[in-house]
């Protein structure tokens, strides 16, 4: 695993040392960022179910201003901290060890608004609709913001969730699906 582009292009990222986390491959990460925007001029991101923090770190490397990383597994949190420290990105990040729905509620109470929300939960264990409904309920998505869902390729994401519409859905390498909502 590495950073694909931007300020930290080519830098290696540590993976989470367990089998509970499924890292996003470099090829999928590259394809995903080509779709949502190769580079950014600021913006806030939320990396929910962050694992090693690869998606949020890629966004920071490409110019996002800040990223909030959330995962409930202690080893994932340790790995995120280690990766952020290695790349000297600690001051542009917040890291929380908690359940995704609690994190969304807490972000809403803080009045946080995100331009990009990455959802990469364990496949077939969490409802994407429920996550997106919670994001809408807590008013976490900026006007024009995107929700990027990584999912099992056999799973069909809903076309509509509240005011969100599925804009694009593709399968990469036969093993990972990506859905983008706006």
From TrEMBL:
PROSITE patterns linked to this entry: N6_MTASE
Composition skew (Basic and acidic residues), residue ranges: 1-10
Keyword Signal in record: no
First-level EC class: transferase
EC code: 2.1.1.171
Span list, region Disordered: 1-20
PANTHER family xrefs: METHYLTRANSFERASE
Organism: Thalassobacillus hwangdonensis
GO MF term set: 16S rRNA (guanine(966)-N(2))-methyltransferase activity
Name of the gene encoding the protein in the UniProt record: rsmD
UniProt keyword terms in alphabetical order: Methyltransferase, Transferase
InterPro entries: DNA_methylase_N6_adenine_CS (IPR002052), RNA_MeTrfase_RsmD (IPR004398), SAM-dependent_MTases_sf (IPR029063)
Name listed for the protein in its UniProt record: 16S rRNA (Guanine(966)-N(2))-methyltransferase RsmD
UniProt entry tagged with the keyword Transferase: yes
Pfam families documented for this protein: Cons_hypoth95
């Amino acid at each position: 695993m590495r950073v694909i582009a931007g300020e930290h292009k080519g830098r290696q990222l540590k993976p989470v040392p367990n089998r509970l986390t499924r890292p996003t491959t470099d090829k999928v990460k590259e394809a995903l960022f080509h779709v949502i925007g190769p580079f950014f001029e600021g913006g806030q991101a939320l990396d929910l179910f962050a694992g090693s923090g690869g998606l949020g770190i890629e966004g920071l490397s490409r110019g996002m201003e800040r990223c909030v990383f959330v995962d409930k597994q202690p080893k994932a949190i340790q790995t995120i901290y280690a990766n952020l420290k290695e790349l000297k990105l600690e001051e542009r990040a917040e890291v929380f060890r908690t359940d995704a729905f609690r994190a969304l509620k807490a972000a809403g109470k803080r009045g946080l608004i995100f331009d990009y929300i990455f959802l990469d939960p364990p496949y077939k264990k969490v409802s994407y609709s429920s996550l997106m409904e919670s994001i809408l309920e807590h008013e976490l998505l900026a006007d024009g913001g995107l929700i990027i869902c990584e999912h099992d390729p056999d799973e069909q994401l809903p076309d509509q969730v509240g005011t969100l519409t599925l804009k694009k859905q593709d399968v990469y390498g036969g093993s990972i699906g990506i859905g983008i909502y706006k």
